[in-house]
Fold:
Amino acid sequence: MNDGWINSEQALRRHIKAYAPILDKRIQAQLDHHCKAIIDAASVVALQGISPSQPLRLLNIHRKDVIVSATELRFPDARLALDKTVPDNDMAPRGPQPVSLLFLVPGTGHCLRAKGQAYTSDVDSGQTLRVNIEQVYVHCSRAAVRSGLWSDGRVHDRSDSPRPDTGTDKLTKAHAFIAHSPYLLLGSRDEEGGADISPRGGPPGFVRWQNSRTLLIPEYPGNRVARTLRNIIANDHLQLLFLQPHNEGVVRVSGQARISCQTRQLESLKSEGKTPRLCIELRIEALQYVEKDTALAKSLLWEPDCFVPEHQLAKFSDILAEHMNGRGVLGKATSLAVRAVVRHDLKHLY
Structure:
């Protein structure tokens, strides 16, 4: 620790206790029937790492045939995942590239996170994206619950946030979007360059502007694995993708991040009367407001008629128990304990 900044995992663990090693068992090397069910029900997937020049972005998979095997995903029509602003020589067929994916299911709290190696081909038409799976696991619903992600979308501005410097209208809109946003996807990289996407959620405007070029992101209680924070310690480049329920727009942000335990910053992020132990400070290098993200609009993510019925997918606690201890007696017994932990966690979100 140095002047209120966390610079090592040892310092990090003074604020967040070490996680239970059994949680490593939740990470699977292949896509099982639970993972395939989530992919089939998802309407949009977030992608990070298709090329080094691309920001974190979305790919519409609503009613599209994602080809799934135990160890591979194929997206037959991935042209919206390829940024046409990237120079041609950076979009040439390549592979492998470390990639992270996060699948969002309409109306469902838990989501699927995956990591692997991506290969692109037929780039002129953007027809094929292939991902060889290395790690996959189901992520809990805490971010979605904190954000009210599947609610009616009514939001409230944190008007006491510092306003950005006068500039383009899009800059003003980007600030307002972030001030209303209850949910974001956070893309980090480890020391070897491996990509990782993690969701964050909270009351609308839970991410605060410290000044016109700096954002503060509270770190709420989780499973203590702290993968994103550990990645920031190793590699300070961070990408954000802000979403708003019932809004087809997005805001993309990238910059340099560091982990803070400074009292003044943490006090400004208090929610439900509780102050987070840590936060992420992001110094913005690039900011992009997209009024209508084509992939998001086509995915129908926010359409209540597209929400997946609760009974269609297995409960998060049952999936987690099975992934950790199998489908036998031990797995079923573990499910009861996991359900109790999940209920406790959802009652103690902050």
